[in-house]
Amino acid sequence: MKTKAIRFALAQIDTCVGDLEGNAGKVMEYSRRAAVDDADVVVFPEMTLTGYPIEDLAFRATFRRAAWNTADRLARELDEEGLGRLYVVVGTVGTEHGSSLPQNRLVVLHKGVVWAGYDKHFLPNYGVFDEFRIFSPGTRSMVLEVRGRRIGVAICEDIWQDGGPVADLAERGIDVLLTINGSPYEEGKGSTRVDLGSRRAAEVDAPLIYLNQVGGQDDLVFDGGSFVIDRDGTLLERSPRFVEDLSYWTLPEPGSASRVSTLAAELDADKEVYTACVLGLKDYMAKNGFSGVVLGLSGGIDSALVAAMAADACGGDHVWGVSMPSMYSSDGSKDDAADLARNLGAHYDVQPIEPLFDAYQGQLGLEGVAAENLQARIRGVIVMAYSNSKGLLALATGNKSELACGYSTIYGDAVGGYAPIKDLLKTRVWQLARWRNEAAKQGVGIGGIVVVGNESGSRGVPCDEVIPVNSIIKPPSAELRPGQKDSDSLPEYDLLDKVLAAYIEHAHGRADLLADGFDEETVDTVMRLVDRAEWKRRQYPLGPKVTSLAFGRDRRLPITSRFRE
Asked: Where along the chain is deamido-NAD(+) bound (predicted)?
């Protein structure tokens, strides 16, 4: 067969776990678009038809059969629509013939049939991944023959590990290495992927296509950012981050140089993290059937940032902010909460808690911390009452610094179904608040963050200032007693967050922290607080993972531990 150029369509889509029909519908939609643009091969993300990660759903034999039937039917429908000439590469769940165990599978739909299949070799079981427990590994590499060209295929982790299918493909004279991925977001990971892709392209002596999933799924966010990189490390295509996208790249005829296709702009670090949090919340709402949210507005920075993210995710008119002042709430905080709601175009209700607090105290007569926590728990009841009565998703507003140190009240400010900033240290919360205000000055209005659903880049509802400046600059306080400040019981956040980053994200022990230059009293205080608060963190709502190590999926200590070194 005469070798020819091949036009690849990179279909970076947002899938939903378990929604076989909906995911297959997207494959049809993007395949139609690709055919109009004369594509030969259409590439979709890892586990396209099933959504990813499917976790223990993989063990359900009826689901695996339904997934196979969906792939089979989809191949026929493509052919019946006149799209059978396309090679449509999708991910799904398969079943190993001998053991009947599930496998993470790539299949090719062509001319009405499921034309070829490949099973993922390397099954990660670190960080957020649990695939080694769930799937049976593949054992063979695969090369597709398309228009006289040789396409080697791999699935995500297969290119992250040395050896295995990539090493085998390097010996088989392929023209391009195609990998489909479900690589979750974490800050800075985009450049790591490109560096990895460059090494693998050099290893197989051929361009590499890296097609990644986009969208939120529970506490994971997938950022897209698909790309094509040449054997010499030249970036040939880069898809945008955090949006669905259909881009193209052409593998030239033998002897011809590869040409650069579209290169989406890179995002600065604050924009990237903020966008990831918005997309995580937006998709969590969509995939769980929520159209609006409710949260307590204290006038502080945490609730302000969460409210801003919520308004960007679903529109200010779908955000219910509830001010719940107590006898200790300052007039400034109440004013800041009202200003924030006005800026966002959010619903704003005031529900004073002092009468309820007095009623409880008349019966219980609490003192000290118990009385302080009672205020938080009354507020939690009010938030959940709004959630139940209006069908709203309740948002918890705690940040990573507070969760690390147990600076939250179980059944109080910890109530909710989702926690948008739980993986952001307090200093990063301030940083992102300032970034959001600066973005507003540059024309990014409420709802103007470019994520799935806003691919057109709508600038949203104009807003000169999103978060009141006073919420950013005033000393943080829970306002549960007169004159209270967070620094009464915690180290200053500039110091605290440095210790937490080293202890949590870099796994430094006591000796390491002292060697890092932190003083002994601070180290002992922080370690004690973090270790004692694990039982609280286990009960906290999930939220989007944006750092290399987040509470929940990534990091769990024993609930009771006496190890302090």
From this structure: 373, 402, 536
